[in-house]
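Possible regression after last week's pipeline update?

I re-ran a chain I had predicted before the update to compare outputs. Posting the input and the new output here so someone can diff against the archived version. Not blocking, just want to make sure nothing changed silently.
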Amino acid sequence: ENLGRCDEALVLKRAIFARRKATLGISHENTILIGNNIVFSLVRLALWDDANTLLRDQLLPAARRSLGADHHITLALYHGLANVLRLNPEITRDDLLEAETI
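New output (post-update):
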């Protein structure tokens, strides 16, 4: 990824994430961390909707359920969501208001 091959890195990260989900489950801490790495790659590629969806639909619910709302990884995921929303040039006020309810 640091060599400018973000697309290739994302493909590999997604493959690892899929394997971890299949073997450990979405709620396992390692699976959640790998998912968060995918979010970083998606942000680097400006794939805002994909990053937002992964965080909201999979990672945050799994982290809250298995780690708890106050766990440092769960809080880091919330921070990641805030960054995705902050950096997305197409974000609307309604999107931000909706995010407050998460």
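Follow-up from reviewer: compared with the archived run. The two ends are 30 Å apart (CA to CA). Marking as no regression found.
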